[in-house]
């Protein structure tokens, strides 16, 4: 099955997914492999979860590779190495998913430079400079690359104690608009898939405290806090030929939470 038979297929493609060893990134890696692409996942360590993702990629008949790197460092320390290692494995790699990211909760008045900087390095600078490195290579080789960032509903809606995270995800939404304008003339597409809350190793502990899962279900129109597979399928669409005219967009994958004016008066008082 090729792109000309099925616009949603990624057959014959090769992808790199940062933060691809667990959670949202692992779901993206699995979905991209299911759609037909070989996948390199980048994670902070080689652990059981990373090996499960590689096994799943290979079960789909695709090649799966792991790169270990600390992406919380300033990008100049790792970007050249990742580009070289990726091209060594897959010289025609044309799909980049800048998914890595985290949040560290802290009241704004107590936020420190180191936590802020780690958040911005992982959530913003990593994707910015990896995209620059791949784009330079693609333009030289005439490859029409496709880039998807993992944003967040927190790029548009604020949460207490999430100021650094919210700032970083707002930057991701602005970045995909800017990179779209810079790279679309070269045939390179840049978009973002922005999840609402989904269950991952990062969010699981919070969901299981203070009835957060129940609260989120009540405040989401479709009543669901899903697993991260919903993110994977959305990213496949954005990477695929089916999205060929979609540039610079942030696609919310949030069960409708971001469009719901809350609290909804009739249910509160009816
Ligand atoms: N889980 C959610 O509800 C949710 C919602 C919106 C957006 N997101 C976004 O999805 C992305 C992934 O979140 P998640 O919930 O899957 O997180 P997670 O902590 O479960 O997974 C993080 C991944 O990033 C990698 N990683 C973490 N620190 C790293 C480092 N220093 N160097 C290299 N790799 C590192 C890990 O190896 C892992 O593969 C983030 O950008 C996050 O902001 C998540
Ligand atoms: O982008 C994200 O990872 C999520 O939106 C989280 O920020 C949750 O909203 C939070 O964990 C709930 O308290």
TrEMBL record:
CDD domains in alphabetical order: SDR_c
Q: Name one GO molecular function term.
A: gluconate 5-dehydrogenase activity
What keywords were assigned to this record? Answer: Oxidoreductase
**The keyword Kinase is assigned to this record:** no
Q: What sort of enzyme, by top EC class, is this?
A: oxidoreductase
Note the Pfam families from the entry: adh_short_C2
Its Enzyme Commission number(s) read: 1.1.1.69
Cross-referenced InterPro entries, in alphabetical order?
Answer: NAD(P)-bd_dom_sf, SDR_fam
The entry assigns this protein to a family as follows: Belongs to the short-chain dehydrogenases/reductases (SDR) family.
Specify the protein name.
Answer: Gluconate 5-dehydrogenase
């Amino acid at each position: 099955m090729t792109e000309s038979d099925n616009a949603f297929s990624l057959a014959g493609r090769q992808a790199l997914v940062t933060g691809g060893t667990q959670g949202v990134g692992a779901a993206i890696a699995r979905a991209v492999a299911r759609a037909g692409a070989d996948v390199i996942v980048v994670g902070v360590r080689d652990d059981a979860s990373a090996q499960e993702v590689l096994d799943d990629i290979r079960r789909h008949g695709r090649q799966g590779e792991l790169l270990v790197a600390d992406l919380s460092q300033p990008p100049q320390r790792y970007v050249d190495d990742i580009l070289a290692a990726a091209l060594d494995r897959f010289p025609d790699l044309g799909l980049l998913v800048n998914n890595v990211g985290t949040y560290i909760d802290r009241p704004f008045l107590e936020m420190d430079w180191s936590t802020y900087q780690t958040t911005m390095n992982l959530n913003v600078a990593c994707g910015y400079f990896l995209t620059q490195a791949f784009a330079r290579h693609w333009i030289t080789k005439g490859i029409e690359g496709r880039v998807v960032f993992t944003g967040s509903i927190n790029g548009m809606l604020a949460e207490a104690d999430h100021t650094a995270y919210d700032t970083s995800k707002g930057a991701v939404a602005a970045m995909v608009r800017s990179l779209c304008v810079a790279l679309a003339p070269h045939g390179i597409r840049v978009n973002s898939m922005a999840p609402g809350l989904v269950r991952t190793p990062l969010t699981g502990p919070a969901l299981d405290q203070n009835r957060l899962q129940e609260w989120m279900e009540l405040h989401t129109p479709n009543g669901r806090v899903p697993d991260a597979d919903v993110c994977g399928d959305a990213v496949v669409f954005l990477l695929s030929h089916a999205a060929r005219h979609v540039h610079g967009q942030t696609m919310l994958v949030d069960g409708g939470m971001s469009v719901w004016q809350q609290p909804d008066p009739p249910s509160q008082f009816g």
